Amino acid sequence: MTSETTPALAEDTALVGFQEHDHENCVDSALAIAESRCKDEGLRLTPVRRKVLEMLLQEHRALGAYAILDRLREAGFGSQPPVAYRALDFLVDNGFVHKIERLNAFVACAHPGATHSPAFMICRKCDAVAEAHSAPAKGALGAAARAVGFEIERTVVEAEGVCPDCTEKA
Amino acid sequence: MTSETTPALAEDTALVGFQEHDHENCVDSALAIAESRCKDEGLRLTPVRRKVLEMLLQEHRALGAYAILDRLREAGFGSQPPVAYRALDFLVDNGFVHKIERLNAFVACAHPGATHSPAFMICRKCDAVAEAHSAPAKGALGAAARAVGFEIERTVVEAEGVCPDCTEKA
DNA sequence: GGCATACATGATATGGAATAACATGACAAG
DNA sequence: CTTGTCATGTTATTCCATATCATGTATGCC
Ligand SMILES: [Zn+2]
Ligand SMILES: [Zn+2]
Ligand SMILES: [Zn+2]
Ligand SMILES: [Zn+2]
Fold first, then answer.
1. What is the model's pTM?
2. CB-based contact (8 Å) between A170 and chain B?
């Protein structure tokens, strides 16, 4: 794994997921970015953690914790729930992976590097997940929060619907 | 075996939108609206369903399915999971109750009557939940969806943070 | 009335998500 | 070498959710 893969970060900031792309490169570069960021920030991207991130990057879909666990077992890692949840906690806390609350499942971040407040589009037919940016404090919710004095720390924004591919097929 | 761990939120701080209000009346009127709407639309607000709605209206907090189940048992109804989940399905499908994905729990709708796309503010300290309106297709997410041809059918918008009461106490 | 249909309820069993609690191993300071 | 920290591993348990089959109950038609 040369860390020389350049930040070929999908430049259409919005949406990896519903678009064809060079997936090999996509996975490799995301892993490279993760390794580089961990080095910079003194985080330890251990084998289990790296493996989980790699699994999630391979799919552009959300995987449940037990699907992840199955693959960890196959790869020779521990196979008890905490093994997966701890790796996921690390990856989520550090912004490499997001949890999709609607699905109780996890997806690799499509815009690693910068901290951001993600929004997701989830296809209910094929389970594809695309990540966009959300503007949490702006809009109706932000206004309502300011009006009552609620301090927003984090937002969950998830849209459920049908992706372009599945719409086309129908 | 009961799964109730509630730290007894001070009773009279019951709040809709984090504001004090006449809670007796709030519950009664919401039940009346539900009954009237069910009559109009030919829906059957049966005893279990009514009881679950009433429970959720009493709290302005989200209750987990098993907390609901415990109370159903106490009230003499069936105590197996499907009993609660079926009642909840009915109430959610018809807009009387919303599911809070972040908590895997349920809360009574604060704006019954009109169909709407809710947004929630969840206090991570006291677990209070307030409901606001969201503008799903407007804003950054709507734009991203239109850009790729994703058809939004439903959105989950949940903000986590600290409510005015808890901010004040700190 | 007798009967078909739809719908609501009930109970059993199982699967999937998440965490608590405890033990072990690796490793870097001191 | 000892100590503290962090990561991993295992066991056990709890909570969330659904599939399945059985039973009851109302309604409308014959
Ligand atoms: Zn990719
Ligand atoms: Zn699709
Ligand atoms: Zn509502
Ligand atoms: Zn609070």
1. 0.88
2. no
